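Could you please consider the sequence and fold following this short note?
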Amino acid sequence: MLNILGKEEIMNDFNRHISLIRALKRLQPNHKKIYSIFTDITPADVYFFMTIYHTINGSEFHSFSEMKPVSVSELRENVHGGVLPTAISRSLKNLESVGYIQRTTDPGDARKKYVVLTEKGYEKVRKFELSMEELWDRVYEEYGMERAKHLTEEINALADVLDKQEIDSTF
């Protein structure tokens, strides 16, 4: 398509692509700012920490005493983005070292590993979730819930289209 366009059209398309990429990149520091609430673990560890919490809880809130262990294999199924098993293991080790999770082995089958939040981990994740609720309430109040919903739908639609595309790397 670009090869039939004139130089001006090509530059306009290029600038449009760059503008979109720059706009999306502007969101990254905010993402890092959110995760900076956790000073003792990395952003990747925060992602796994929240994945553990949501895998255990599902869409319901549970008290600490109701929390059940989750298998490491189930966690792997809930991790998105092609994360390597070594990265998952490293994050689990980090989360355990700061006292947020505890890993156990099935007494009947040493190959089965489980993860559960500690009380310290549970309290930290609940505080984080409350903080995020307050933040997003303020964002939606200022930006508008319908605009945010529409933007989310559009970004997901764009991501779906991009996921299907191949890039010619032969040039």
